[in-house]
Batch of 2 targets.
Target 1
Amino acid sequence: MNKVKILAIVGSLRKGSYNRQLALAAKEIVKDTADFTLLDYQDVPLMNEDIEYPAPDAVKRVREEVKAADGIWFFTPEYNHFFPGVLKNLIDWLSRPVSENEPQVLAGKPAAISGISLGMSGTAIAQDHLVTLISFLDMKVMNVPRVTVPNAWQYVDDQGKLIMESIYPHLEKQAKAFVNFIQAKCL
Ligand code: FNR
């Protein structure tokens, strides 16, 4: 069977982001079954209807990447029991019709969610908010299994590198489930 195309969207712009490291670990796990790309969206401007049409180049580019993907895997931190504003801003752009003749690009796309945070929730509260948003946008959410890693400090070495050992089995389980979920939904 052909490899599925997974686009990873990390809700943190931080260079050493633990969520980014989680995404890179997932990339390694799925390398035989999926082409896995991390979306770079740092240049997407703040949503402003005054600049919506024609869409800024950065918005055009991220839309094309979403359109080309068979599934979207979100890796999100939790900021104040929510997902970060940078992610909400990106999704707000993606939620809008491309043109009068072309609808928004997220509808119907399979989605998975993982996250790691310093606090005890392990991003579970942020993930639930994200599920509400992306379900409204008609994404097909794989609710089980999700990965929620609390107390991130326990898994980080003194260089800020994630020690994946005990997280790995959960991520592997989710990765396999998501590839199957995508194949069942859209291939
Ligand atoms: C946080 N953090 C945090 N953690 C948590 O478990 N629950 C929370 O509600 C919050 N709130 C919060 C708000 C803001 C504004 C910041 C900057 C941080 C801590 C957070 O888990 C930690 O910074 C993670 O390391 C962020 O993820 P990345 O950047 O490592 O992927």
Target 2
Amino acid sequence: MSLEVIILAAGQGTRMRSKRPKVLHPLAGKPMLRHVIETAQAMRATAIHVVVGHGADQVKTEIADCGVNWVMQSEQLGTGHAVAQAMPAVQPDAQVLVLYGDVPLTSAETLSALMALLGDQRYGILTVTLDDPTGYGRIIRDDQGEVQRIVEQKDGSAAELAVTEVNSGIVAGNAADFSRWLPQLGNANAQGEYYLTDLTAMAVAEGFTVVTSQPPTAVEVEGVNSRTQLEQLERVYQRAIAEKLMAGGASLADASRIDVRGELSTGQDVAIDVNCVFSGEVSLGDEVLIGANCVISNATVGAGTVIEPNSVIEDAQIGRRCTIGPFARIRPGTVMAEGAKVGNFVETKKANIGKGSKVNHLSYIGDAEVGEKVNIGAGTITCNYDGVNKYKTVMGSGVFIGSNSALVAPVTIGDNATVAAGSVITGDVAADQLAVARGKQRNIDGWKRPKKA
Ligand code: UD1
Ligand code: CA
């Protein structure tokens, strides 16, 4: 039977005190709503309907390209009303699962366990038992333990409110049943809303069995209403990632001081010092060492490479046994071959740095092809930009660039050529040549310094 997921995301999220719709606030670098959509995709939903209202245009723009069906709920008249808006687009023979754009950490396994309990004449609720159930809808069971209905906090009697098993909000059933029940909802309750929770009593009245299952931890059904709650879920999520990394053979100096906002894969015996942030897709080969305070996004790092503290790497391919930093900035399009070194206060961009080549200090290497075993002295700058266009600097293998040289691109330096320190190189240098392009030194005898009167 096909599964269609309806995600409620129309609420304003007043307590976030934000101009951004709540469901766009990021968890691990990704909007909460995107987490929920990806969970629905992981469950192989044949259709995903997202009910939007507040900030709908912004939500649709930022969560583009994920093939969901957007459903507009102009007025937020309640969770039941929200689901009803999506039903016309749902196939009548499908199963329906209702999720929430502000409940980002529900796992596909937990949801599959709930779906597995469904069938004809069945309606499913994901419930959780809380020490403090305040604010949630309570699951009311009869003497046999069968679920009878859900009572909202604002509508409950003292006895009902004493129940600690609560409604996570996540429910599932057959589309045909949803379509039959939703139009019957009324709003004669404390909040004047059309409650999705009232479907439970309707199911029971029709002789359905209401099935329930529980997530392994309550975190999976926690919603985000404030920035504090978002931060708490972020920490839980990051902790889980850190545990996975350690289980996979990586050492973390402090599991509470690493943030992964994307996918980080690590080889064996990787060690990561404190305060590192990884985003996008990053892969670290065996025995890679990452110093403190590094920020790395969309990069592959070969085995045995050492990244010293305070380095920033973005969209780069780093080979094996390279050394980077401390304080290096590796910008997009940098490719470093095996054993290459980029040291402190060096910026690279669209640069191919050959095997064993070194840019040890204080340089800018951009739009450059650097051969093997090249030594680039401190303060070397590739002048790649004339204010309009970018040009390339090409260095052959074995090149030696003296300190404080400016290489004005387009320019080619042949194999084993040498550039004297302090040169401004504006023309090509052939293989094995020495280029000296600087004012010649004059020493003036008997020079008198000016004296104060
Ligand atoms: C709801 C449940 C409650 C459950 C709790 C779990 C109902 C009536 N109550 O209460 O039993 O314990 O969730 O958190 O369902 N939304 C819309 N459109 C609407 C109304 C809500 O999209 O018209 C969205 C909100 O943006 C929010 C979610 O649905 O993300 C839940 O709505 P909310 O009003 O916060 O329900 P709760 O009072 O938390
Ligand atoms: Ca809520």
